[in-house]
From TrEMBL:
<dbReference type="GO" id="GO:0044718">
    <property type="term" value="P:siderophore transmembrane transport"/>
</dbReference>
<keyword id="KW-0798">TonB box</keyword>
<dbReference type="InterPro" id="IPR039426">
    <property type="entry name" value="TonB-dep_rcpt-like"/>
</dbReference>
<keyword id="KW-0812">Transmembrane</keyword>
<dbReference type="Pfam" id="PF00593">
    <property type="entry name" value="TonB_dep_Rec_b-barrel"/>
</dbReference>
<dbReference type="Pfam" id="PF13715">
    <property type="entry name" value="CarbopepD_reg_2"/>
</dbReference>
<dbReference type="InterPro" id="IPR008969">
    <property type="entry name" value="CarboxyPept-like_regulatory"/>
</dbReference>
<dbReference type="InterPro" id="IPR036942">
    <property type="entry name" value="Beta-barrel_TonB_sf"/>
</dbReference>
<protein>
    <submittedName>
        <fullName>TonB-dependent receptor</fullName>
    </submittedName>
</protein>
<feature type="signal peptide">
    <location>
        <begin position="1"/>
        <end position="19"/>
    </location>
</feature>
<keyword id="KW-0472">Membrane</keyword>
<dbReference type="InterPro" id="IPR012910">
    <property type="entry name" value="Plug_dom"/>
</dbReference>
<dbReference type="GO" id="GO:0009279">
    <property type="term" value="C:cell outer membrane"/>
</dbReference>
<keyword id="KW-0675">Receptor</keyword>
<feature type="domain" description="TonB-dependent receptor plug">
    <location>
        <begin position="128"/>
        <end position="233"/>
    </location>
</feature>
<keyword id="KW-0732">Signal</keyword>
<dbReference type="Pfam" id="PF07715">
    <property type="entry name" value="Plug"/>
</dbReference>
């Protein structure tokens, strides 16, 4: 393994050295100007100014002015972007020693049509011109919903739902279009370093203040990103330095109105050199959440969390058309659920205790030709996780374990634009990728060892014929997985038709696969009826395959002064050799064992509808709903009890669910944000224990989880602002009412919102 890592680092180093341009004589070609609101003529602070096709860029200062110096000579295109405004471009021609003035008057736009996304084709594209439909969650949404981590903000997109799957430790997973967590691939800055181990609790370990935006690509993504992207991809884009600034905040939440509190402190700072050649953005979070016992049985429904995280992202512009980007993060998290939280875990009746230490980062290099017709990217990324755990009950002294996991990914990508290829201009993308995952799991007391080493070598090729009105993308990816005997091919076809800028029509097909390896829930040992339950893989387990088709219409229209957007998307996914679980003979240690095997197959079909409306500057509304069916081809047995009937409906997949957000700003400094999620009835397994005497598939009630957040901004001194805020999460207290109780409870019998009605207050300082 060391030789692969050293080779990847050496290749990256060589490209970096070759890409660094020698010092050149200053061009003294400069541009200055301002950005103002076209209607009010007020200057707009902190708008982003980018020189298209180059590494140059800056932001306006607090007075709305900007200055760019030592730019390349010739024709340049400048693009301005500001929150709440439509993007705008202007062209200018510069000569050596010339200083030009270029001013922008931008138009207010509550709904952006020109968001830039990278997940649709692994290159930056306008969202409305991307070959596949990409949904975007920005940092503002995480603030509006009072989300402290990735898990708490993901549900506010159509077709996406986050659920809590363990009453003891709070294990969460995200479902896209009804497919459970291991069908979706989580990327960090487009890099696949989120392993099976970090997938167990990783959604809560990524702090919200680390995130610039999240791009969600629903449907098969294996043709671009490889294994485990059957349901879609979630691409977490970390914050990048854009100007000199800092933020610090603290939020105090009373869980269930009790004396169990969640204290969350976040810090961000951004520094950019005067020349704009380099920048550094740092973040930090410290969180302490007390355990919460909802039903008074002495066992927690919400686990203790103590976490600290710190990280940074930095860039260095090596030339006019090239740059290096580095990212690093360190996360420490301790969590524990069960009873007797102040005692060692082996003295408790039930304890799930996990202590993580995670280090991860990446280094990438981007370079392009001056005309942007040739672009090259190379990267290497890693994540190392060390975990100490205890999953046990009834004062079991042998339930301690340790796990180590190292994930490394490296790749290169080349893009060439043809002015005409056969019948239309096109963009050819070719890339190679190598990923390595070395997992070692030890249950010391039971002498159980899980060792898994995964090597995946992949290559992808795609060509997109495109104009502003039409695009046709045809491509595929070849993967050689060391746990699969043959090479796996994942095809992709996308067609886009834009009869106007306000109408975007798409149809897509993608094939995908999921390899037979240990997944996130295999690294989580549940406690059911006081016994440990773990998962093993069948000897003849083979990869799971998928075929996904989607059709979508993304429509924009303005009714008077009301801007609207309507998205309708239909999807149909066929799964072959679906992974399923069956009970096996009890293990020698007395615990229960479930085996993962290839089932009959399944189909998932439905549609997403999302609407957005910006009525005025002070009122915006967004809502989405998903209606779907998730069914196995044949009934699947899920219990060892012969009297329990098999089911065709997939567990934990409601046929209807949705979300909404609304923002009111009646006066300049005051904002009221409403948000909520609605989850329809679904089937959940309830295993025999303290709650029921026999395994049963329970049809759960529906839930509506609504939140409210009120905030007021106070200008303290010039560029220093304090925001005071407060609100209620789960306003109507839509919380599960039939939890199992006591030591014999089924910890997996949990559904609905993750918190009862909870009150929060906080303050944020911005510099």
């Amino acid at each position: 393994m060391k030789k692969y890592i050293l080779l990847a680092l050496f290749m990256c180093r060589c490209v970096l050295v070759l890409g660094v341009e020698p010092p050149k004589k200053s061009t003294d070609a400069n541009i200055f100007g301002h950005v103002v609101d076209r209607d009010t003529h007020e200057h707009i602070p902190y708008a982003t100014i980018a020189v298209t096709g180059t590494a140059f860029g800056t932001t306006t200062d607090a007075s709305g002015h900007y200055f760019l110096k030592n730019l390349p000579e010739g024709a340049l295109t400048l693009e301005v972007r500001a929150l709440g405004y439509a993007s705008q471009t202007q062209q200018v021609t510069l000569r050596r020693g010339q200083t030009a003035e270029l001013n922008f008057e931008v138009v207010q736009s509550g709904i952006s049509m020109d968001e830039v996304v990278v997940s649709a084709s692994r290159s930056a594209r306008l969202r409305r011109e991307a070959p596949a439909l990409v949904s975007v969650l920005d940092a503002g949404l995480f603030e509006k919903t009072n989300a402290s981590c990735l898990a708490q903000g993901l549900s506010f997109q159509p077709g996406v739902r986050v659920e809590d799957d363990c009453q003891n430790c709070g294990f969460t997973q995200v479902r896209i279009n009804g497919l459970d967590g291991h069908y979706s691939q989580i990327l960090v800055d487009s890099h696949p370093v989120f392993s099976a181990l970090t997938g167990v609790y990783g959604l809560e370990q990524i702090p919200a203040n680390m995130i610039e935006r999240v791009e969600v690509l629903r449907g098969g993504g294996s043709a671009l990103f490889g294994s485990s992207a059957i349901g879609g991809t979630i691409n977490v884009i970390t914050k990048e330095p854009s100007r000199n600034s800092a933020q610090m905040s603290h939020t105090l939440t009373s869980i269930g109105g009790s004396n169990s509190y969640d204290n969350n402190t976040m810090l961000n700072a951004s520094l950019v050199t005067e020349s704009g050649r380099a920048g550094l953005c740092v973040f930090g979070q410290s969180r302490h959440r007390s355990g919460y016992d909802h039903d008074g049985d002495g066992f927690t429904e919400v686990p203790v969390i103590n976490s600290q995280s710190v990280g940074m992202r930095s860039f260095f512009r090596t030339g006019a058309y090239s740059r290096i980007t580095a990212q690093y993060h360190h996360i420490n998290e301790f969590r524990r659920g069960g009873d007797m939280l102040d005692r060692p875990p082996h003295e408790a009746q039930v304890a799930e205790q996990i202590d993580h230490s995670i280090d991860g980062g990446s280094l990438s290099f981007d370079i392009s030709s001056p005309d942007r017709r040739n672009r090259f990217n190379t990267y290497v990324s890693f994540q190392n996780t060390a975990r100490k755990s205890y999953y046990g009950s009834k004062q079991d002294p042998d339930a301690y374990g340790t796990t180590h996991d190292l994930t490394v990914a490296a790749g290169m990508q080349y893009i060439h634009e043809f002015r005409k290829l056969l019948f239309m201009p096109s963009e050819l993308t070719f890339g190679t990728e190598y990923s390595y995952d070395d997992l070692g799991d030890r249950s010391v007391g039971y002498d159980i060892h899980t060792d898994q080493t995964v090597h995946i070598v992949g290559a992808y090729l795609q060509n997109e014929w495109k104009t502003r009105k039409w695009s046709l993308l045809v491509g595929g990816r070849l993967d050689k997985h060391n746990l699969v005997d043959h090479v796996i091919f994942s095809p992709r076809v996308n067609v886009r038709f834009n009869p106007s800028e306000a109408v975007n029509l798409r149809v897509s097909y993608a094939g995908g696969y999921r390899a037979p390896q240990a997944f996130d829930e295999d690294m989580h040992i549940a406690i059911v009826g006081g016994e440990r339950v773990r998962i093993q893989l069948a000897d003849d387990l083979k990869e799971e395959r998928s075929h996904s088709v989607s059709l979508s219409a993304d429509l924009y229209h303005t009714f008077g002064k009301v801007q609207t957007n309507l998205l309708v998307e239909g999807f149909y996914t066929i799964l072959d050799d679906v992974f399923a679980l069956r009970d096996m003979d009890d293990a020698a240690d007395g615990g229960k064992v479930k085996e993962r095997y290839n089932g009959s197959g399944a189909t998932v079909r439905g549609f997403n509808v999302e609407g957005r409306a910006a009525f005025t500057r002070w009122f915006e509304l967004q809502a989405g709903v998903t209606l779907q069916q998730s069914r196995y081809r044949e009934p699947e047995y899920w219990s060892e009890d012969a009297e329990v009937p098999p089911v065709r409906r997939m567990f934990r997949t409601p046929d209807a669910y949705g979300y909404f957000t609304a923002s009111f700003k009646p006066v300049r400094n005051f904002t009221a944000d409403l948000s909520g999620t609605c989850t329809g009835s679904m089937l959940v397994q309830h295993m025999a224990g303290s709650g029921v005497g026999q395994d049963v598939a329970v049809s759960t009630p529906s839930f509506f989880d609504m939140n409210i957040r009120l905030s007021y901004d106070v200008r303290i001194y010039k560029e220093i602002t304090m925001q005071l805020y407060g609100g209620v999460q789960n306003l109507f207290n839509a919380y599960q009412k039939d939890f199992d109780k006591g030591v014999d409870r089924d910890s997996g019998y949990i559904y609905g919102p993750s918190l009862p009605r909870s009150w929060f207050v906080g303050a944020k300082f911005s510099f």
